[in-house]
Amino acid sequence: MIVVNTETVPGCRIVELKGMVQGNTVRAKHAGRDIAAGLKNLIGGELKGYTELLTESRREAVSRMMAQAEALGANAILNVRFSTSAVTAGASEIMAYGTAAVVEAEA
After folding, report:
1. Helix 31-43 with 48-71: angle, nearest 10 deg
2. Within 10 A of 88 (CB to CB), how many other CB atoms are there?
3. pLDDT tens digits for 26-78?
4. Please, are residues 77 and 2 in contact by the beta-carbon 8 Å criterion?
5. What is the average pLDDT value for the chain, to the nearest integer?
6. Where are the domains of the chain?
7. Cβ proximity of 76 and 1 under 8 Å
8. CA dist., res. 14 & res. 24, Å (int)
9. Which of 43, 67, 90, 100 could be stapled to 21 by a disulfide with Cβ–Cβ 3.0 to 4.6 Å?
10. How crowded is residue 32: how many other Cβ atoms within 10 Å of its Cβ?
11. Rounded to an integer, what distance in angstroms lies between the CA atom of residue 8 and that of residue 76?
């Protein structure tokens, strides 16, 4: 599966557009991460627990988006974007979305 954040794939032509696909996940903060983040806020620096949480969330959202595209018979997802939003206090949603397409190499 080709996944790009551009409208085209270099060296390929779009044969068919299958439509928009998306994948999302809602994740809650871990109490241990909250305590560590609170301490880190006092001294500064990267909140590695949250970085890992967001990385896992993006990976899961992309995986779900790709599964939806494959179910439509696509071999590429174009113009991929990410969105995040707070769902409740302590939980947020990560969404990946794009346009599923069938592409083939240019002759």
Report:
1. 130
2. 8
3. 988 765 555 555 555 566 677 777 788 889 999 999 999 999 999 999 999 99
4. yes
5. 88
6. 2-105
7. yes
8. 26
9. 100
10. 9
11. 10
CA distance 76 to 70: 9
Rounded Cα gap, residues 97 and 11, in angstroms: 23
Instruction: Report how far residue 7's alpha carbon sits from residue 93's, in angstroms, rounded to the nearest whole number.
Output: 25
Q: What is the rounded CA–CA span in Å between residue 34 and residue 49?
A: 9
CATH superfamily of 2-105: Hypothetical protein apc22750. Chain B (3.30.110.70)
* DSSP assigned state of 34: H
**Model-level pTM?**
0.84
Tokens read off for 92: 């947020």
